[in-house]
Design a protein that fits this description.
- The protein is an alpha+beta fold.
- The chain contains 15 helices and 23 strands.
- A hairpin with a 4-residue loop joins β14 and β15.
- The relative contact order is 0.11.
Length: about 475
């Protein structure tokens, strides 16, 4: 992991936020290569979840929402982690990180887990993870809201807008990619657990009774997605939650986990959320007029008949001539965690000609740079010829032109950032119009027609 972190900084993938001023814990900046890689991950997700389907549409909801959204969704009451502090070394921990069975047993450790400390720990206390902010110039409780801790609630709040403005019918999904914020007690493991991050979430609305089938369908679809992008399947597992450990809104949940160098970590959760969210917001809508800015944790929602299926967030099924509140299947993935998993999975070292070669074996669709154009020498018309090929490729994909240092060293530079193809213009190019194509993973070289390069890259990237 240390080697990968060093590589990401050295080659411009990821930097610590505000590093110039000592850094901010739990926040990260994506550099020139990192932003391309992360964008490719998000684009691959969007293509699979929206563009390639007829039953899913997109959304981009606001980060700032009405505070009642978070009261109705249960985040104000339930979105909290148990926290303890060491009285001696002052370190802060989540209780369930050092006592995994805390939720079941209620047992709190008494000694600091740091072997060099072993100081006394404070009693556990709940810490709400949402960042508070104020709408407008007056900082009082009536204007208090939160930075969203997830993108899902923006989808639920727009359910009726989407159904009214499109002709889409249940079953259908609404997908979005966007920033979320959680005031994590203990950010750690590089970009894995951060306070600011991006999510790739989709809420799939289906008829009650068909939800179990759709849940299994989406578990399989997500497995196919990771496999299609070259993730090592032996490092991926799909872990179903035990019924007694399900979230309050969930009927069934399966986590997609990857074996990072620091251990197994969740990439995404696939949950059967039943009709919990739409029903909760339907209650919240009926209650919002009674809220006059009191502290949210003291405000009680107006309840309703649990069998009530009418109201603004219900759906009228034309075929069955009945109204119901749809059930929801949610595949919710982390863009930052997925990017980190692809980096970890791609990182490799091999012995190339007596020296260690560092290579990122990224899937070509994810690679931040698709090809490098290299004139063998800076004379005899080779740079001009190389520039012409570079310009042709640059119109379609992110590519680089590199003429400095020996060609072998230039190959190594491209291997380190995951560039799948290098094209070298040499003396033979000037004679017969062929170039040397070198593949990253095998290091195999072959002569190809200069005119065929664009087509070859297209086939390798999109085939």
């Amino acid at each position: 992991m240390e080697k990968l972190v060093a590589l990401t900084k050295r080659r411009g993938f990821i930097f610590q936020s505000s590093e110039l001023y000592g850094g901010v814990n739990g926040a990260w900046d994506y550099g020139p290569l990192g932003v391309e890689l992360k964008r490719n991950v998000k684009d691959a997700w969007w293509k699979a979840m929206v563009r390639d389907r007829e039953d899913v549409v997109g959304l981009d909801s606001a980060i700032l929402m009405h505070p009642m959204v978070w009261r109705a969704s249960g985040h104000v009451a339930n979105f909290a982690d148990p926290m303890i502090d060491c009285k001696k070394c002052k370190k802060r921990y989540r209780v369930d990180e050092i006592q995994p069975d805390y939720e079941e047993t209620g047992i709190v450790p008494t000694q600091c887990p740091d072997p060099k400390c072993k100081g006394e720990l404070t009693p556990a206390r709940k810490f709400n993870l949402m960042f508070e902010t104020v709408l407008g110039p007056v900082a009082d409780s009536a204007n208090k809201t939160f930075l969203r801790p997830e993108t899902a609630q923006g989808i639920f709040a727009n359910f009726i807008n989407v159904t009214n403005s499109t002709r889409i019918k249940v079953p259908f999904g609404i997908a979005q990619v966007g920033k979320s914020f959680r005031n994590e007690i203990n950010p750690r493991n590089f970009t894995f657990r951060s306070r600011e991050f991006e999510q790739m979430e989709m809420e799939f609305f289906c008829k009650p009774g068909s939800d179990d089938q759709w849940f299994e369908y989406w578990v399989e679809e997500r497995k196919k997605w990771y496999a299609s992008l070259g993730i090592k399947m032996e490092k991926l597992r799909f872990r179903a939650h035990d019924k007694e450990k399900l979230s309050h809104y969930s009927k069934a949940t399966t986590d997609v986990e990857y074996q990072f160098p620091f251990g197994w970590g969740e990439l995404e959760g696939i949950a059967n959320r039943t009709d919990f969210d739409l029903r909760a917001h339907q209650i919240g809508m009926r209650s919002v007029g009674r809220w006059k800015g009191e502290e949210l944790q003291d405000f009680q929602l107006v309840d309703e008949d649990p069998e009530f299926a009418g109201g603004k967030l219900s759906y009228f099924d034309e075929e069955e001539k009945r109204r119901y509140i749809p059930y929801v299947i949610e595949p919710a993935a982390g863009a930052d965690r997925a990017t980190l998993a692809f980096l970890c999975d791609a990182y490799d070292e091999d012995d190339a000609g007596g020296e260690v070669r560092v290579v990122l074996r990224l899937h070509p669709r994810l690679a931040p740079v698709k090809a490098a154009i290299l004139p063998l020498v800076k004379k005899e018309g080779m740079p001009e010829r190389a520039r012409k090929l570079y310009d042709a490729l640059k119109k379609r994909w992110p590519v680089v032109y590199d003429e400095s240092a020996a060609v072998g060293r230039r190959y190594r530079r491209q291997d380190e950032i995951g560039t799948p193809f290098c094209f070298t213009i040499d003396g033979d190019t000037m004679k017969d119009g062929t170039v040397t194509m070198r593949e990253r993973d095998s290091m195999k070289q072959e002569r190809v027609s200069e005119d065929a390069v664009v087509r070859l890259v297209e086939e390798r990237l999109e085939g």
